[in-house]
Every structure is written in structure tokens, then in C-alpha cells.
């Protein structure tokens, strides 16, 4: 009977994996063995990659019940791509993904895969399991970002894992015990517990730390035996005081601690007893032991105590995945709010950048699911989007111009003039070095992408006057630099999101104490910008809003109100008016109303949020002459000129609205 079953399974799998003559991928030998070299041939005709000349490939191999991800070097000849791959001696199956830029060919999520065979002709260890788990993303044992739309049934997962354990019990029984029992219980429910208990009995025969943790998982679910699981926890903690469970318990304790001082002490003790190790990644990921949270608490304390030296020291041990978050919370926000002088931020900021650079050519374990080439692309994205822009500003502000210039040139290769913040920094640096030819190039390309700042407009005007002797015709010149296709596309997008809704009535006071009533503004186009002093993107958008205000300063039928909301400081009104004056903003400030029962001045904003199901600031509303809301925009995209043009376009569309 067992031989008949084996024959049926092999026949079924051979039919399933039969090499289709019409397939875009061919494997030679068709049924490879572990340790062999295999030739993979790819014909992109009929795929999303047809006609592409820069096709790359990623290979996923299942080795010793662990996924490995690598690049595959393909060579093209007459439209056909070939690569040779030396399989490891422990490989059970392989799968290949083909790429060209953002396009991918995964055989419509069915994959291009092969299960290997051993010397007896059976599928090699890992073949059954890899094929099942790769397509079951809800079990969490597949490959991130690959076949994530695939989710085969619980019974199918059970089938493949059962075959793996049946034919390779020595290799698979321990490694797959937990996912096997999970699949079995999902498929059968209570009747499965008899067999789950047999798995428990098997694991007890070899009480290693890993097997004890597997037992604990099974006692918790699906057996739901709290008494036994509590007892087992005590045994594990006693036997392995610095093991996985001890780390989990220590993390849970600090994570749930609400007293910040006590939390910091727990964090220090945690990192001393359980320093971050790559080897712990899989357990930490599955049990949600988040080292970023631990380091972030420590970093916040350092910032609160002005312990910049301790923050610098801590940066040398941060995991790659933690660096962007901690840099943002401790460096980026402080730099943009000007809470801390850049001279004090420089050392810890440099330390974090240096730490991140160590991972550039060494894929961190947290990104195991990316091939080395994919990691190189992802690294540049993470580095430039999360660290580079602020770092350039800090370096420039502290007089490290050469270092800032080098970093700006590198970042521009990634952003390609689509970041106003970078364009501004690079322009200021080029102006400092008096490299006017390069400065002109940056200014023109930035304006073409509509990613410029008021400072850049001033530099552009200086260059224009230097070349022409006067500023006559400058506005026409600037308009001519902008990409008309981009402007047309943005206008079409704005037209598509235009609305026509009734606005709630409101009455607020301005900075002089004068009462402003919504009902008195009929006949005017109104721009309301909700903001707060603590909101970094709110204040970052003000240079662009200033450009818009100045454009309409002579139009009596367009009014701008900068509505300050959600403030808690007792002296916020004086502080705000001083801020507006110091920055020379020609803004009419309105102060949101504060209800007696509330701590913040947010009465009008809360009513508007409820009326239109919105939240968050900066929030800009464009209202027509009849008091109808026509546009809602949230956030700030980063470009002052882009924002000014967007506001201007919305105003003009609103003016024409019936």
C-alpha cells in the first residue's frame, strides 16, 4: 500500500510539474538532483518583459528547510536568456523570478519552479515542503514580496507537509512540526488533536531548546493547554535563562511598562542580557520582539537629557532596520523643528549614517528576502529617502560643505531632481562654491520638475539678471522652464478630485483679536490652511504658501486664512504671532476655538474633520464664493513651487466652478 501511495504521489507531482513545451522557462536537466548544475532557459516572449534588454533574475532555493535568495546571472542570445546554477547539496526545490525595472514575470503568480529528486527518484528533502509553504503566505513560512497573492488551501498545505514528513521524517519532522500541526488543525479542527499529541510525544524525545519552544507553541495553540504551557515555560526559563523565551518575556515586560523611567531601566537590562544578534532574527520576527522599539526608547531618553554622546555611541550597534526610524525621531525632527542646534546633532547623525553605510554591501538579515542586487536598490532607496536629505542640511549648516556636496551629488543620482529639498540644498552648496554653470543646470532642471524653493527662485533670478541685465521677463522665463506635460497632468488630476459640499459654519478670531465669520465671506474664494506649531510638514509648506499668497495679494476676491489648531501651550498665541513675524510671512492667522472641556483649541477643525471624514494636518481647504467646499488637500509633498502652483490651479478651478 505504501509503495502504491508513493507511486501515486510521484505520478501526481510529475504531472503537476511536467515541463510544458510552451512554457517560457526550461530546466535542464528537467528533474535535477541536489548538488547538480542546472541550466535555466527563459524566453520572455508573451510576458511583461517581452522585448526588454535588461532582464535580471532572482532564484529562491529551499535548503535545509530555510529559504535562500540570490541573483542569477543570465546572458541573452537572440532573445533567449540562459543561466547556469550550481545547486547546493541540501536544496529541495527552486523557483525563479524574472525582472526588468519595476516589471516582473512570476508566471502570473504561479511561479517557475522545480522540485528536485534524490538518488532513489523520490523528491529530495525540502521539495514537498518548499512547494507547499512558498504558496501559503498566510502561514508565514514563505518568501516576503514573492507570490504574496497566492494562498493555497489549508488542506493543500497539509498535503504537502504531510508528504514531506512521511518521506523524509529524519530531516523534516522537527523542523516542520509547528506549521504541520497548524495546517492539520486548520483543516480538521478538534479531530486533529489526536495526531497533534503524537507530534508532541515525538518532540519530547529530544528536548532541545528549539523543540521545547516548538512544544510550547503547540500547547498554546492548537492544544490550548494553559496549565501545561505555563509549567513548560517555567522549565524553559530555568534551563535557558538567556534563551529565546527569556528574551521574549523580558521584551514583553518592557514593552508593557508605562512608566518611562522604569521602561528605560528595563531597556538597559534587556540590551545587556540580550544584545541584538542576527541569529535571533527568525524568532524575534515571529514573536514580535522589536529591537527598534527598545533602541528608540533609549534614543528618546538620550535626546531628552541632551545625551548626544550616548546617542552617538548607541548608533554603532543599531540593526539596519532600526536606523531610519531612530534617525527620523531623533535627528530629522530635531533638525527641521530647530529644537536642537545642528552642531549638536552632527556627531550622532554622522554615526548613524556611518552605521547604515556598513550595510550597503552586506545585506542585513532583516532583508533576507531580497537578493543582493535587490538589496542594493532597496539600500539606496532607504538611505536617500530617510537619511541623506537631512544629513546634507546638517552638514551644510555646520560648515562641512565638501562632505555635504559629495552626499548631495550622490543623492541626486537617485532623486533625479524630483526632490525640492535636495535641489535646494544642492543649489545652495553650488552657490557657496561659486559653481554657477552647475548651479544654473540644477536650477533649470529643478524648475522643469517643479521641485524648487523660494531660495532657488532668488538664485534663478540673480542668474537671470546676471545674464540679461534686468529682471524684465523673469516670470515668463520661469513659466517656460516648467514641464507643460507635468502641469497638464496635475491639472487633470485636480479636476478629477474636485468636489461640491456644504461647509460647516464657523467664527474665529484673528491675530489681532478681530472676529472673522464664515458667512461674511460670501463672494470670495477662501483658502484655509490648518496647521500647528508642532507640525513639521505644516511649517515646511509655508514658503510655498507664501508664494501663493503673494501671487494673489492684489486679488480682493481671494483670501487666505492660516488656521492654528490643536495647540496646548498656554502662550501659543503670542508664540505664533512672533513666529509669523520673524519669518516674514504675509499670513492672516486665525485661532481655532477652544471649548471649556477641551485641552486644545480644535473646535472648528474637529467639526470639519467629522463633516468630511478627514484627519491630520497640514490640511488645506479651498472654498468657492457660495461657501461650497471644492478641494481638500492633506500633507505636503516637499516642493514650494509645486505647492504654489497646485494652490493656484485649485483657486482658478474654484473661481470657474458653478
From TrEMBL:
Lyase is among the record's keywords:
no
Q: Which UniProt keywords apply?
A: Redox-active center, Signal
Listed name of the protein? TlpA disulfide reductase family protein
One Pfam match, given by its short name, reads AhpC-TSA
InterPro entries, sorted:
AhpC/TSA, Thioredoxin-like_sf, Thioredoxin_CS, Thioredoxin_domain, Thioredoxin_ResA/DsbE_sf
List the Gene3D superfamilies: Glutaredoxin
Q: Is Signal among the key words of this record?
A: yes
Report domain Thioredoxin positions. Answer: 497-656
Q: Where would one find the signal peptide in this protein?
A: 1-18
CDD domains listed in its UniProt record: TlpA_like_family (cd02966)
Source species, domain of life:
Bacteria
